[in-house]
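Components:
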Amino acid sequence: MRTSHERGIAEVTITVESTIKFPYKRSLGPVIGPFMTALAEQRFIAIRSGSRVICPPLEWDPETAAELPRDFVDVGPAGTVCTWSWVSRPTEQHPLDRPFAFALIKLDGADTALTHVVDVESIDQMSTGMRVAPRWRAERLGHITDVEAFVPGEEAITVNGGVPGEPVTMMSYDASITYKIPVSDNTIKAHEATAQGRLVGLKCPVCERIYARDRGFCPIDTVELTDDHEVELPQRGVVTSYTIITPVQYPGQTETEPFSRVMVLIDEIDVVMMYQPLVDVPVEDVRIGMRVAVVWASEAEKADAGRPGNLVGWMPTGEPDNTDPSLANRIM
Amino acid sequence: MNERCAIVGVGQTHFKKRRDDVSIAGLLREAIDRALADAELTLRDIDAVVIGKAPDAFEGIVMPEIFLADAVGATNKPLLRVHTAGSVGGSTLVVGAHHVITGIHGTVLTVAWEKQSEGNAQWGLAGGRSGGIGAGGAFAPWMRAYIQQSGAPDYIGWMVAVKDRRNAAKNPYAHLKMPDITLEKVKESPMLWDPIRFHESCPSSDGACAAIVTNEEGAKRAPRPPAWIHGLSVRSELGQFPGRNPVRPQAGVECAHDVYRQAGITDPRSQIDMAELYVPFSWYEPMWLEGHDIAGPGEGWKMVDTGETDLGGAFPVNPSGGVLSTNAIGASGMVRFAEAAQQVRGLAGEHQVDGVRTALAQAYGGAAQYFAMGVLRNTPPE
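Structure:
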């Protein structure tokens, strides 16, 4: 994940940009699988549905939902543009890095259209009814992008090389999305407070529940919470529940040491801070009733830009344990 | 208008770690075609389709209902998608049934699924300090709170795990079948999120479940016994606020009381014959027994301890093997309703409980904040 701070966008003073990327694997099944396999062989196949020829092929009749017999037929490679849309400013996620057209292309012999890309130099070269043919990639994986683009004309541009030896049954797909999220005044104040070594919250004027400084509203009373509602929180509390987490060795995850996360009920006020780290407490010593106090980052640690925040965790105070049995009821 | 409503067809896929042999559409059709065969209906007999799954990010397909419309037989018919996190399979069935109960449609197909192998389910596990604490890490302190409050011995969690995995061995559709599992094996399995051990946690599964709901006329035509719906309820609450009790969420209490009231149940423990409860971690069995007022405070774990929730016990819970043995998240809620339906229909096969007349189905989701529940019987409502 990449984050950056930007100033000066509209009325919002700060936004955080986050990019989430996630890998997926798609099982193609008995109809799209053969279609993708054919692409790797520089062919298009369609499926018969009654008197119609459907491309890309479907597993079920689009009107009756009946399962279609696996009656495949070769179509194309040339076809006719049924309609199109010009992309004048392609982004990183578009298939070409220059202006192009998305088009619905009815391949010769098919009754339905395939969505793909037409690579021409300008919009003036696009027209409904124009004839196009595929330009194949040299490295083909059994993916719709094995056709780099369609180009005007009747002749496919074929390339010898890189064909998977096996039928294509799976497709990899990396999803990515970028968000820009405005940072609220309350979030900024929350960061400022922790930078100063203060633990603060916002107290609802109606129900008197106290929320984290960045919450900005009471969800129970639907009241907006602002600077006027700020309250200073004591920096001591008691552990009401916990878990000891053993990291799982999935690929890329190398940590092995078990660690704790605890619920801390803050002294004097009705606030629980959830899933907090403990500092310098062996996992076998973690227990309900343990008295703890906040540990703030040292000046050296604060200077480390990679640090997620200034609240490092909680450390035992050495006071006797709180033995109140009702503590276990306070985990939120 | 308040029509009588019954489940007349259910279908499940075989749940597995990976179903690479089928497309997502093919997975749904496997469940749908089994449900249609059970009801001896075709897609032409279906008036509307309601589908449900957990977040789109699991498979990386935004609004999958759009590309699935033809495969699920929804061409030119109403198609709705329901989304309530892990409880979605339950609420999908409830939404479908509401269309029948209100008289809007005669017969509705409901289907729910997850194909978790398409995404990377590692987010559900615990990374290191810098990574996520995993699904179990969020729930573990709540389970510890339950254990602390109730005084339950630690072997209760192991007992639930042994019971559910042995039950699953009798269920042809279940994912994890472990007929030879023992308390010792559960106890010796790695601790993932103390107090939750590896064998006390659900797997990540691919699979789908479908159920056909219909009105009284449809139920009369059904070739096999219908499972009559006597109560349906959906409730939700905020996942986090000061003073919330996530061990016994208020939404879960009210959802249960609502279905009991609809079904005329005043003493759930004696008036309900079996339950399919959403138990992805072993401790959720006693927690829901208390959270839905089937057992009194601190009494849920004793029902486990005495064998009352065993397949042959007085109040069997999850004879199918439950979520602990099979978890295709979006499908899991509907599987609870489908399995409860099979029990009242007498069609549950090797894991059939003797003489079930009244069954309870329950699904929960999110931070134990969404609930969908139903009461099914082998006789129609009065």
